[in-house]
Amino acid sequence: MKVVDIKTYILSSSLERPFAYSQGWVTKRSTTVVEIITDQGVSGWGETFSVGLQAPEIAASVIESVLKPLIIGEDPLAIEVLWHKMYHYTRDYGRKGVVIGAISAIDIALWDIMGKVTNQPIYKLLGGAFREKVQAYATGFFRTEGQGESKKMVSEALKHVSDGFDLMKIKIGFGIKDDLQVVNHIRDAVGDEIALMIDTNHAYSAIDAIRLGKALEPLNLRWFEEPVVPEDIAAYKHVKGQINIPIASGEAEFTVFGFRDLLESKAIDIAQPDVCLVGGFTACKHIMALAYAYGVEINPHVWGTAIGQYASLHLLAATPISHHSLFAQQPIFEYDTSPHPFRTNLVEIPINHVDGWVEIPQGAGLGLNLNRDFLKKHGTLFSHSLIHQ
Fold first, then answer.
1. Closest C-alpha among 190, 96, 19, 102 to residue 382
2. Is 301 a catalytic residue?
3. Residues 301, 314, 340, 353: which is the catalytic one?
4. Model confidence band, residue 383 (pLDDT cutoffs 50, 70, 90)
């Protein structure tokens, strides 16, 4: 079996109403999707989602101009070999960011092909399922005005509870005073039985993150995500040593080399690799083994399309517990509740929770059926001609 073609698609959809997180305003949802096609008619799908404010054309250009020539003609089942081939070829200008995200899309598609060829779901190829379903946590709480929206955030929290969620992650980072008002009001509204996490998307310095964390310690938060910028591991370590809330990070980190630095420094309690950014399933395998050795909990991040959601669920199924016990805390699934047509319409059967729980996909490969009519209508096939325009 050989790879004969790779098709790269840009998907972009403007939002009727933009929303904000701590780093800026999101005006559209966009992503880069790849289809790897083999000479035996088997194809696989992968994604590198446009993290933050990233334009999807950047990753598409990397795939088309750099990675595609490396993969055409190769055996798609030699996944580890191809991962190293892509990483070493781009090492001098890659290592982090959009290049690794582009490798992620290729890698996910290769695993999808492997699953289809062997008629196995990807989680079985990763070693099997530690769990058949995962509890979901609602991600949302984005702002439409900016500060002063605590009443709106409380209303959203109550809706999540009524929808069956027992866990939710609150997007903050809009100033310590505003953050405290929002989180405290939500806790008062939902009660102590609902697990809360907070995510500032690296909005603060270490000292301000510590001030915020100390003020919120009484609320028994499950984790404090991205308190400081991802480059500053010393700041992470400082924050972790000063507050009694587990520190989570990793959505903006890449490959086993980046996570090695985080784990060796004992800077985090929870590692959050995103399969669509960190280097795909292959990189996640490396990272999970390392995190297990360091005793650090793995809880994957996902905020992409349905492809990313399916991939993340396979990864969650195959994620071991770092601290085994009869009643060990299990990893949980990030369930994006913000507007996203590529999450709901890109596949024939979108991921949906039932009373806050999601079943692990059971089909071959990723287990999804892509809605090609939707892709044709809303996607743009990227090509070399677009690179040089």
1. 102
2. yes
3. 301
4. confident
